[in-house]
Amino acid sequence: MDIRNSQYTSIEQMTGQLLHNRKTTIEKPKTESALSFKELFETKQQQGLEEKTEISLKFSKHANQRLESRNIDLSGDVLQRLEDGARKAQQKGIKESLVMIDNMAFIVNVSSSTVVTAVDENENKVFTNIDGAVIA
User: What's this model's pTM, rounded to 2 decimal places?
Assistant: First the structure.
């Protein structure tokens, strides 16, 4: 039986068709409007940073009690520095941050933008359950 004249396709013909189809599906022409992965990644990353730069801190009940009992005054400058510290922690991906300002320390839950507690220079300075620190 002569395969060349039969109704069946030869192995060589199938291989040729497979290779031809593979080239057309793998090698897609790149258009000018298509972004590279790096360009797309950098664009999305920048958009994410822009969305996350706005932060407005809240104070937990515990933090308010600590501020009052320790006579810690949060002037406008200190509050601004605390927000800046929380923003820097957020940009670095920190979830629970120690933010130090002068002789005061604050634990900030960055994901919820909440000050959890406040410590002044007269208190014990052992901090646990944080994954980063910012000196503002």
Answer: 0.61
